[in-house]
Amino acid sequence: MHRVFAVPVADVWPAYVAKVERKGRTQAELIEVTTWLTGFDSDALQRHLDAGTTFADFFAAATLPPEVSLITGSVCGVRVQEVEDPLMRSIRYLDKLVDELAKGRPLEKVLRSA
Asked: Is the pTM above the cut of 0.85?
């Protein structure tokens, strides 16, 4: 099992927030992207953050949308669509969406709705 699986999402969340805010995006947009990916509503997301839910448990409870297969590209030199482990792929999907948001991609495109 990879170490990141046992890391609480709340430990990484401030880095996600800082990354998107540094690039002129908002925490509300980050929440929208995360809830789209996981199927959680904002209250459920906050409960997971407050509870210190690990990435393993976070994605075990999530319901990824069918459009998740449209998330392609590289994160840290790793092509997300080629990651074999389903949990690691889900974590990479989140990383990719955060990257796209921070790079200024329109929210509709980040959410694969346009």
From this structure: yes
